[in-house]
Amino acid sequence: VRPVERGLIERLGKYRKFADSGFHWIIPAIDRMVKVDITENMMEIDTQEIITEDNLNAKVDLVVYYKVIEEEGAVKKSVYKVSDFEPQITRLAQTTARNVIGTFKFVDVNSKRDKLNKDIAIILKKETASWGVEILRVELKEIIPPKEVQDTMNQVIQAENTKRAAIDFATATETKADGEKRAVIKRAEGDKQMKILIAEGAAKAYDLVNKHFKGNAQLLKKLEV
């Protein structure tokens, strides 16, 4: 028995003992060993149409991850309590998905996948507990709406993208205009300050001329020349 397997040894059609990984003696024609894979397995559920609460036919792809619990009791259940548990899980997953998704509107189905995955997994775990099988997780791979709904969704997405582009352009234009406005104001303030400084300089110069050259215009003219 390989490390990824567990075995059940039957003698003359009756369960005899549990076979862990390793070597085991059996008597041909009298003993029979049933081996069970205990590793994690993935099961893809065929695409099915599910009617949502708002009466839309959505196509849903589902994946179920499961494993047989390696303890003796669980391995015995997987063989003796259920007939070929894999197709049973498939049918159960399909039915559960229809029941759970059917209570949601399509827009919620598409946006609440995590919740749907958990809800479906919880139900599957409960239903398969007596089979010695553990449901590890469930994933909704793809949810495809009817074509007309898909076309409408694409139009909505395109309109939203156009709206965002228009808002971005308007914001950029406003920012540019605001920058230009601030630049004009800065230039005007600079011109104003420059004129004030020139005027103040001229006034100080006038005061100095009056102070030092009052009554001596000839000397002032000579210095100017």
Quickly describe the structure.
This protein is an alpha+beta fold and 225 residues long.
Structure write-up:
- The protein is of the alpha+beta class and 225 residues long.
- Helices cover 54% and strands 24% of the residues.
- The protein has six helices and six strands, in the order βββββααααβαα.
- Strands 2-1-3 form a three-stranded antiparallel β-sheet, covered by helices on one side. The chain has a three-stranded antiparallel β-sheet with strand order 4-5-6.
- Strand 4 and strand 5 (57-68) form a beta hairpin.
- The longest helix has 66 residues, at 147-212.
- The chain is elongated and about 145 Å long.
- The model has no long low-confidence stretch (mean pLDDT 83).
Give helix % range.
40-55%
The termini sit apart by 119 Å
Query: Main beta sheet: strand number and arrangement?
Result: 3 strands, antiparallel
Radius of gyration, CA atoms, in whole angstroms? 43 Å
Range of strand content: 15-25%
What would you call the shape?
elongated
Number of H- or I-type helical stretches: 6
Mean of residue pLDDT?
83
Spatial sequence of strands, sheet with the most strands = 2-1-3
Count the beta strands: 6
Structural class: alpha+beta
Order of helices and strands: EEEEEHHHHEHH
* Unreliable spans: none
Question: What secondary-structure arrangement, pairings included, does this model have?
Answer:
Layout: E1 5-11, E2 14-19, E3 31-37, E4 41-51, E5 57-68, H1 72-80, H2 85-101, H3 106-111, H4 113-128, E6 133-144, H5 147-212, H6 217-224
Antiparallel strand pairs: 1-2, 1-3, 4-5, 5-6
